[in-house]
Amino acid sequence: MNASTMASQDGRHYELRFRSLFDAGRAYTFPCDASGQVTMDALSERALCNYLYVRAMIGREYRFPQVEAVLQ
Prior knowledge:
Blueprint: E1 12-19, E2 27-32, H1 45-56, E3 66-71
Antiparallel strand pairs: 1-2, 1-3
């Protein structure tokens, strides 16, 4: 599944958002499906490194992620 197949029938796209525990304006977002599954093979090398980092920092620097619908 690639980013273009992550859109639902009604035109929504989803993002998995990891918000910082300490800085309200800081967050990482990654394209995902409606259930929050990120296709790691579709990420760039830098995005993949960021994704793996932020997952490892849940509870230390980042909150548990939330799935958010984005209308486009």
